[in-house]
Write a structure and sequence with these properties.
- This protein is an alpha/beta fold and 314 residues long.
- It folds into 2 domains: 109 residues, 3-Layer(aba) Sandwich (Rossmann fold); 155 residues, Hnrnp arginine n-methyltransferase1.
- The protein contains 8 helices and 14 strands.
- Strands 6, 7, 8, 10, 11 and 12 form a 6-stranded antiparallel sheet that branches. A 5-stranded parallel sheet has the order 3-2-1-4-5. A 3-stranded antiparallel sheet has the order 9-13-14, with no helix packed on it.
- β4, α6 and β5 form a beta-alpha-beta unit.
- α3 runs parallel beside α4.
- It is elongated, with a radius of gyration of 22 Å.
C-alpha cells in the first residue's frame, strides 16, 4: 500500500471540497437513485466519506459494500450508523488494486477519476473489479469518461500586473517581462480552475476515453492535431472531461461549464510556440511511469489535419 497516497486521501480538506461540489454530488445522487431498486446489491469503490455508498442506501439498496484504503473507513461507517443506514452497509478497508470478494454486485459506483484518467488507477481497477464482481446485466456508474484537450495561451500572471502601475512617479513596467518569465519557469502540470475560453487557441478535441466495460487503456502519450483559430503563444495544453453516468446524466468539467472540484488539468509545453489562425499544430502529452508528472510538446503538424474539431457541447 502506498502510504503517501493513503495519507493524501485522508486529508479532510479534500473531502470538504468534494462534499461542497453540488454539480458532482447531484449528478451522482440522481444517477444512483435512478438505478437502485429494492433488491439491488451495490459496491462503492474508493468510498472516502461514504457519500456515494450512503446515496445508494438511501435509494433503497438491499446491501451496500463500501471499500477504501484510507483510515477514514471507520468514520464513514459511523456516519452511516448515525444516518440510520448502517444495518444495510458493510465498510471494508483495503487496497482496490488487490481487494477481492466472492460476491457479485448489480451496481458498482466509483469516483476514481484522476487527472487524464490514469492517476488514480481507475482504468485498471475498474477493468479488474468489473470483470470479477459485476453481476450479469449489472451497471457501473460512471460508465465512461471522455477526455478533451485544447492548446492554450496563458493569461498574464497576477504578479505581472503589479509592475504596470506607476509608483512614486516611476515607470517600472520593464519588470513585467521578468515577472512573466519567473512565473512561467515554475509551471508544472497541475489542476487549475479556469473560467471561460479566453485562453483557447483552437477548438478542443476528443483525445481518449475511459470505458468502464472495456479493457483498461495503457497510460502513455496522448496526441491530437489542431487548427489554430486565435493568434497567440501556445504555452500549454488544457485537459478536461465529460463524465457519463448514463444516457440521462453527465458532468462536463470544461472551463465554460459549471465549476466542479475537478477543474481542469494544465500541462505546460516544453517550448512555447507562436501560432496564427490557420496554423496546424500537433500536440502531445505524455506521462511518467507512475502517472505522477505530465509533459507536453507542441510542433507544426507534419500531417494534414482534415478539419477543426466540432465545438464540445457541455
Amino acid at each position: 500500500m502506498d502510504l503517501r497516497r493513503v495519507q493524501y486521501w485522508e486529508d479532510l480538506s479534500l473531502h470538504r471540497w468534494f462534499l461542497s461540489d453540488r454539480v458532482r454530488n447531484e449528478a451522482y445522487r440522481e444517477a444512483i437513485h435512478r438505478h437502485v431498486a429494492a433488491g439491488t446489491r451495490v459496491l462503492d469503490l474508493g468510498t472516502g466519506t461514504g457519500l456515494l455508498a450512503m446515496f445508494a442506501a438511501q435509494a433503497g439498496a438491499a446491501h451496500v459494500t463500501a471499500v477504501d484504503w484510507s483510515g477514514l473507513v471507520p468514520y464513514a461507517e459511523e456516519a452511516a450508523r448515525r444516518s440510520g443506514l448502517g444495518a444495510r452497509m458493510t465498510f471494508v478497508r483495503a487496497d482496490l488494486r488487490e481487494w477481492e470478494d466472492a460476491a457479485r454486485y448489480d451496481l458498482i459506483t466509483h469516483d476514481l477519476i484522476g487527472g487524464f484518467l490514469w492517476e488514480e488507477n481507475a482504468a485498471a481497477i475498474l477493468a479488474r473489479i468489473g470483470a470479477r464482481q459485476l453481476a450479469p446485466g449489472g451497471r457501473i456508474l460512471p460508465s465512461r469518461v471522455d477526455l478533451f484537450l485544447a492548446p492554450v495561451a496563458l493569461p498574464d500572471p497576477v504578479e505581472a500586473g503589479f509592475w504596470a502601475e506607476p509608483r512614486y512617479g516611476l515607470d517600472l513596467s520593464s519588470f513585467m517581462e521578468v515577472e512573466r518569465s519567473l512565473v512561467r519557469s515554475r509551471l508544472r502540470s497541475t489542476v487549475v480552475h479556469w473560467r471561460g475560453d479566453d485562453g483557447a487557441l483552437a477548438e478542443p478535441g476528443w483525445t481518449a476515453a475511459l470505458d468502464a466495460y472495456a479493457p483498461a487503456p495503457r497510460p502513455g502519450e496522448l496526441a491530437a492535431d489542431f487548427v489554430i483559430s486565435r493568434a497567440g503563444a501556445l504555452e500549454g495544453v488544457l485537459g478536461w472531461f465529460i463524465i457519463h453516468f448514463d444516457e440521462h446524466t453527465r458532468v462536463c468539467t470544461a472551463p465554460t461549464a459549471p465549476a466542479t472540484h475537478w477543474g481542469q488539468i494544465f500541462v505546460p509545453v516544453a517550448s512555447p510556440l507562436d501560432v496564427r489562425p490557420g496554423d496546424r499544430v500537433h500536440v502531445a502529452v505524455e506521462t511518467s511511469a507512475l502517472c505522477s508528472e505530465w509533459r507536453a510538446s507542441a510542433t507544426a503538424a507534419r500531417r494534414s489535419t482534415s478539419a477543426q474539431f466540432a465545438p464540445v457541447r457541455c
